[in-house]
Structures are given as structure tokens and as C-alpha cells.
């Protein structure tokens, strides 16, 4: 008997491992020590060493055992990924048509997927052990927060959510300032008191500091300072490892994060909340192009728990589900504090003399707010100084030499200006004269946030003006510092892009002015009106949250447009009804399901030829659900060239999600070979947000 036991211990075991490589996988390895599904391993792959995830223990390998290589190390610094996490990864791989390893590995904090972090004398037992061993000062206790009294609508929403048993999607539709966050907190407290974990997703990194403070102030007395963790891409690698490990071990009871946090393993998850669920930031635009909101709903269903989707301007897909009874809709129609929604005014700019892009009405309104000691926000979703540099003599404009796009004029930190391309990152000094005709009188056309900031400083020299956009917040912590200055009352006029439009609770902000909203009115993408309405409704909601008489001024040359008329009435339901009727008549989402195949090549003809071949092969191979799937013609992208690479796309759609998925599963098996023959790069995106 002892010999039999020894033989069994010495016998090799087989493991099937998912790796982050552009091949279908998973891959079989020999393992001389026990390795369970969900554990990470270091394995040889070609000449490299890679970290992979064990997904199966087959009785026999799929290839000749003599050709199977050995696992080099089993990583046990964290518990194995739980079964529900493995199911989530498999679903994402199947639905978004990606190899399993390209789902599992990229979502991990970088040190957890690097062999070098576990090998060599200086690495010891790995990044988790090093983080555990590092002595950290105890987290500073947050000042306890007194919970405000709930109004009747908030209390009804909390009662409805906490009464749910099992899976139920909830759409919490509340106007801006209606106290949705307080509903989240009260519902979370009930779940935490029952010994479960809560996942709270937000769309932007800059929303986490203020919300983290509120969570700690409310929850630390119950779950302790280590019970709240934050996870997003702006953290250092060690901080991400710490938050991930705390969630996976069950130490973090409340996890606050951006879209990546949907993949955090949480063994006792009891509630998922997706704040600002309509926000496009929940859709990943590189690699695995997943929707964190959609995965949140799937994960909640898989674990039989409630999921709350909150927004003042829900995605039309979510509203459609609520209209059909698939989601439970809860409403918060009024503001939580004793303040009314701001008054919206449309300023028709067609016959006005504008000064620096500002109407007399907006300029006067800003001055009045400053006299009353209130803050004003000027919203313009265009960073830089000016969208383009122009020659009045020959009509030359500043083009990017690498892209089919203009370069944007930016004011540098040092005196002087530079031209930037927002697509490829190209930068160049401003030419002293026109490259075409030699005229030295080059002028900026249009306005970006830098130019508006400059003009406001001329108009209101005594005002303290701050700009918040992607340029002013590049350094780590700079966005948090700028928002803190606004909250502290150290800013009189705030100039900002969409970064300022979501979630921020400015106590002294009385006026919001919107410039250049019309740019999105006639965009090619069918979702542009929905995005415009949501953006304007959200930024308008920053005004008058703590004071009476909040005002929003929208400058437009098309005041009669339905988007603006619905904004005047704060009428999301009316806008959604009109938009859904249009979508239904044209058979667009949510009445159809789409996928987008994109190709990149040195020549546009190459990309188009690949897409045409991909379209043709569907018919030649007789792929599943052909009759139920519409395949459109290949077309160039709107910005066709980026960094000397030409781009084109092919749209496929169906009124049946299962039919589309069946087609995509078969179609995607052909694409790697076709792409290799055509020498193009390709990307298949399911449920694309932009077409």
C-alpha cells in the first residue's frame, strides 16, 4: 500500500491552462504537484515564461504526452479564483468572442500576471506577500457621518431594494441631486449587516475620492477601515494588488471601482450597484471590449443577487427593459434637498453678436452670479486652445501628417503654443508662416477650453478661474486637487469638459453655461442625440444643488430640436419615448443587436479587401443563422487614417441575439486566417457603442 501511494504521488497530473496569447487555447501542461482550477501557474510558452490560470484538470492531455511541457511553479499567494469568477470569465470570452486567456489575465493587476514578480532572489514569495509584509501605517479613521433623513421616495426605493430576494435588476431613475447615492448607501448597509460584500461601480476615476470619503464616513464604524477598498487603473501596481487581494480574500466588504472592478473576485458578493449606468466609460475600448454594466447584470443573475443601475438619464436599452417589465423601475422625481431643479434657458445664437464665443446673456449671467458670491461653470467638451490653425490667405488648415484629422492648437505650460493630434499623439511647434503660401497671419479657428479660460480672465479679471480637462489633470492627484479647490470655494469660474459633468456635488454652483452643444447634433452615429441629451442633463444637474435659483444657459443655433426642448422640461421620459420610437422604426438597438468588424492596414484597399472577403466567406461557408443576420458593405471609418494606419469597418446585425451570437462564433473562427493572408490587424466588437 505505501508503494501505491508513493507511485500515485509521483504520477504526473495534467492541467489545462488559459494564457494571454492570441491563440484559441487553453494549453495542456504536466504538473507534478496538485493544482486546482482557479490557481495561477508559471509555465513555459515557446521561449517565454507566462503566468496562466488553470481552468481544468483533464484525465489525459489533448496532444501526445511526450510533447507536453511542465508547469514551473504553482502560485498560491492568493486563494484560487472562485467558481463564480471562472464562470464570469468564460461568459465574457464566449459573448465577446475572445480566447479565455485574453479575458482572465489582462484583468489582473499587472504584478499578478508577471513571472518576474515571483522569480529571483529579490522577488521572494511574490507581490502579495511583499505587500502583506510591508508595514503600513493604520488607515486614518474617517470622521463619522450623520446619515441624512430620507424623503418618502428615497425610503420607498431603499425598502424595495432591500426586500428583494435573489436576482432582480433595478433601474433607479432619479433626477440629478435626488439622492441616489444615499439610496445606494442605505441598501449597502443592509447587505453588509447580513455578512455579504458589495460592489459599487462608478464611470470615472475622478469620482472615486469624494465617494470613497462618503463610504468611509458612513461604513467604517461597521466594517472597519480595511473594509472599504478602491480599485481603478489610476492606482499604483502595489495599491491595485492590495485592493484585489482584499476583495478576493473577503477582507474588503465594500469595493468601489471603475469598470475593471467588475472582474474583482468577491466570494461573498451580495449586491452590485452601477452608478451613472448610462455612461460610455463602462465600455472598454481596447482588448476585450466588454461592457461593465452588462457584465454586472450577468454576474448578478449568475449569483442570484440584486443589481441596481442608477442614472438621471438611463441608457435607452435599460429604459426599454424597464418599460417591458424586465427591470424593476424605481423613481426619485425630486431633489433630496430643499432645492428645485435649475431653470434651463436656450439662447438662440443665430442673430447674436458673440464675444469670444460667449453670448451677452451668458456673460451677464456669469457676472450676476459672481456678484452674489456663487460659482459658475462654463462647459465645453473640447480641450485645447482652438480646434484648428487657419490661414486666411489660402485656406490652409493644420492637418496631422499621420492622421486624416486636424491638429489642435494647445497653449503650452511655458510661453508659446504647440499643435497636438488627439488621435495619435503627434506634436509639432506652430509654424512661423503658412506652409502653403508663406503668409505669417495664421489665426486660430474655434475655441477650446484653454481659449475660453483666457477670454473669461479678460472679461472677469477679479475672478478666480480654474480649468479641468484632460490636459490640466495629467499628473497623478491633479484632478483631485482641482476638484477639492472647487469644493472649498477657492474657484469662482470653472471651465471644464465632460470630466465635470458627472457625479460632483458642488455646493456653491449656481450657473452652468454650455458652449458648442450643437457639434453633436448632426453626428453620423445614431447614438449621438442620446449622448448629447445625457451629457447636457448631467452637466445641468450640477447647478443649484444646494441653493435656490439654479440656472442653465445653453447656447444653440437650433433651439427647436427635440433634444433641447426635452431639456427645457427636464423630461427624460419624453425624450426616451421619442428616441425609442425612432430606433424601432429604423430597427436599431435596442430592437436589434450588432457587432462591428474593424480592420487596420497600411493601405485602405487592404483593409476593405479583407472585410469584403470576411463578408463573402460567411456565404461560401454557409455559416449558422445567415438568413437572420444582415451583413453590410465594408466602409472606411470617419477618421480613416490614424498614425499612418488606414481603418475600415463592417457592421453585422440581427433582431435575434442568439442568432447573432451563433453566427459570430462560427465567423470568428475564420477571421484569424483571413487576416493573416491579407496582412491586416482586426478587431471584432460585440455591442459597439460607436459606428
- Number of strand segments: 28
**Strand content of the residues, in percent?**
15-25%
**Domain unit count:** 4
Q: Oligomeric status of the shown chains?
A: single chain
3D shape: globular
CATH architecture of the largest domain: 3-Layer(aba) Sandwich
Q: Helical residue percent?
A: 25-40%
Query: Which topology of the largest domain does CATH recognise?
Result: Rossmann fold
- CATH C-level class of the largest domain is Alpha Beta
Could you name the ranges where pLDDT drops below 50 across 5 or more consecutive residues?
Answer: 1-10
Average pLDDT reading = 92
Helices and strands, with pairings:
Layout: H1 2-10, E1 13-18, E2 27-31, E3 40-45, E4 48-56, E5 73-75, H2 83-95, H3 101-104, H4 127-133, H5 152-162, E6 168-174, H6 180-193, E7 197-201, H7 208-223, E8 228-231, H8 237-249, E9 254-257, E10 269-275, H9 292-303, E11 306-311, H10 316-323, E12 328-332, E13 343-348, H11 360-371, E14 375-379, E15 388-391, E16 408-411, E17 417-420, E18 427-429, E19 442-445, H12 449-459, E20 465-468, H13 478-487, E21 493-496, E22 509-514, H14 528-540, E23 551-556, H15 562-568, H16 572-586, E24 593-601, H17 604-620, E25 630-631, E26 635-642, E27 645-654, H18 657-678, E28 681-686
Parallel strand pairs: 6-11, 6-12, 7-9, 7-10, 8-9, 10-11, 13-23, 14-21, 14-22, 20-21, 22-23
Antiparallel strand pairs: 1-2, 1-4, 3-4, 3-5, 15-19, 16-17, 17-18, 24-27, 24-28, 25-27, 26-27
Amino acid at each position: 500500500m505505501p508503494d501505491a501511494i508513493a507511485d500515485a504521488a509521483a504520477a504526473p497530473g495534467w492541467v489545462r491552462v488559459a494564457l494571454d496569447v492570441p491563440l484559441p487555447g487553453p494549453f495542456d501542461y504536466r504538473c507534478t504537484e496538485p493544482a486546482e482550477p482557479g490557481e495561477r501557474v508559471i509555465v513555459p510558452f515557446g521561449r517565454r515564461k507566462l503566468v496562466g490560470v488553470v481552468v481544468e484538470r483533464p484525465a489525459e492531455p489533448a496532444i501526445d504526452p511526450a510533447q507536453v511541457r511542465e508547469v514551473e511553479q504553482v502560485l498560491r499567494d492568493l486563494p484560487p479564483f472562485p467558481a463564480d469568477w471562472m464562470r464570469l470569465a468564460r461568459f465574457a470570452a464566449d459573448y465577446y468572442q475572445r480566447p479565455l486567456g485574453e479575458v482572465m489575465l489582462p484583468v489582473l493587476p499587472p504584478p499578478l500576471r508577471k513571472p518576474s514578480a515571483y522569480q529571483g532572489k529579490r522577488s521572494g514569495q511574490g507581490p502579495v506577500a511583499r505587500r502583506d509584509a510591508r508595514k503600513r501605517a493604520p488607515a486614518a479613521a474617517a470622521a463619522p457621518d450623520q446619515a441624512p433623513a430620507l424623503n418618502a421616495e428615497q425610503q420607498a426605493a431603499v425598502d424595495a431594494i432591500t426586500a428583494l430576494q435573489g436576482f432582480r435588476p433595478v433601474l433607479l431613475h432619479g433626477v440629478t441631486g435626488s439622492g441616489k447615492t444615499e439610496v445606494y448607501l442605505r441598501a449597502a448597509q443592509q447587505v453588509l449587516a447580513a455578512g455579504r460584500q458589495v460592489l459599487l461601480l462608478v464611470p470615472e476615476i475622478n469620482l472615486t475620492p469624494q465617494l470613497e470619503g462618503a463610504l468611509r464616513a458612513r461604513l467604517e464604524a461597521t466594517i472597519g477601515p480595511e473594509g472599504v477598498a478602491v480599485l481603478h487603473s489610476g492606482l499604483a501596481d502595489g495599491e491595485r494588488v492590495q485592493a484585489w487581494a482584499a476583495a478576493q480574500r473577503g477582507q474588503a466588504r465594500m469595493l468601489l471601482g471603475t469598470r475593471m472592478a467588475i472582474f474583482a473576485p468577491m466570494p461573498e458578493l451580495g449586491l452590485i450597484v452601477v452608478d451613472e449606468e448610462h455612461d460610455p466609460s463602462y465600455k472598454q475600448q481596447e482588448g476585450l471590449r466588454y461592457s461593465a454594466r452588462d457584465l454586472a447584470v450577468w454576474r448578478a443573475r449568475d449569483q442570484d443577487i440584486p443589481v441596481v443601475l442608477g442614472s438621471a438619464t438611463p441608457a435607452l436599452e435599460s429604459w426599454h427593459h424597464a418599460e417591458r417589465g424586465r427591470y424593476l423601475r424605481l423613481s426619485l422625481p425630486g431633489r433630496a434637498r430643499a432645492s428645485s431643479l435649475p431653470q434651463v434657458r436656450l439662447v438662440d445664437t443665430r442673430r447674436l453678436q458673440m464675444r469670444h464665443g460667449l453670448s451677452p446673456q451668458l456673460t451677464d449671467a456669469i457676472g450676476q452670479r459672481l456678484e452674489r458670491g456663487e460659482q459658475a461653470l462654463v462647459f465645453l467638451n473640447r480641450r485645447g486652445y482652438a480646434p484648428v490653425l487657419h490661414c486666411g490667405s489660402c485656406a490652409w488648415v493644420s492637418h496631422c501628417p499621420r492622421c486624416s484629422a486636424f491638429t489642435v492648437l494647445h497653449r503650452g505650460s511655458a510661453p508659446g503654443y504647440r499643435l497636438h493630434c488627439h488621435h495619435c499623439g503627434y506634436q509639432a511647434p506652430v509654424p512661423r508662416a503658412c506652409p502653403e503660401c508663406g503668409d505669417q497671419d495664421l489665426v486660430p479657428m474655434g475655441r477650446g477650453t484653454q481659449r475660453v479660460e483666457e477670454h473669461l480672465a479678460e472679461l472677469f479679471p477679479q475672478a478666480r478661474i480654474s480649468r479641468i480637462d484632460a490636459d490640466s489633470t495629467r499628473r497623478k492627484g491633479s484632478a483631485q486637487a482641482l476638484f477639492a479647490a472647487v469644493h472649498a470655494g477657492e474657484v469662482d469660474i470653472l471651465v471644464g469638459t465632460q470630466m465635470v459633468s458627472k457625479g460632483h456635488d458642488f455646493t456653491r454652483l449656481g450657473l452652468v453655461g454650455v458652449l458648442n452643444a450643437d457639434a453633436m447634433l448632426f453626428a453620423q452615429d445614431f447614438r449621438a442625440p442620446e449622448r448629447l441629451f445625457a451629457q447636457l442633463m448631467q452637466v445641468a444637474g450640477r447647478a443649484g444643488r444646494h441653493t435656490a435659483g439654479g440656472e442653465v444657459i445653453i447656447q444653440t443655433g437650433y433651439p427647436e430640436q427635440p433634444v433641447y426642448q426635452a431639456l427645457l422640461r427636464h423630461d427624460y421620459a419624453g425624450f426616451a419615448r421619442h428616441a425609442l420610437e425612432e430606433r424601432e422604426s429604423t430597427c436599431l438597438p435596442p430592437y436589434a443587436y450588432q457587432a462591428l468588424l474593424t480592420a487596420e492596414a497600411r493601405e485602405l484597399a487592404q483593409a476593405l479587401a479583407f472585410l469584403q472577403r470576411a463578408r463573402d466567406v460567411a456565404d461560401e461557408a454557409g455559416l449558422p443563422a445567415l438568413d437572420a443576420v444582415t451583413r453590410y458593405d465594408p466602409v472606411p471609418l470617419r477618421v480613416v487614417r490614424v498614425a499612418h494606419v488606414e481603418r475600415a469597418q463592417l457592421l453585422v446585425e440581427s433582431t435575434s441575439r442568439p442568432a447573432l451570437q451563433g453566427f459570430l462564433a462560427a465567423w470568428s473562427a475564420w477571421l484569424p486566417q483571413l487576416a493573416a493572408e491579407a496582412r491586416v490587424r482586426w478587431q471584432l466588437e460585440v455591442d459597439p457603442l460607436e459606428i
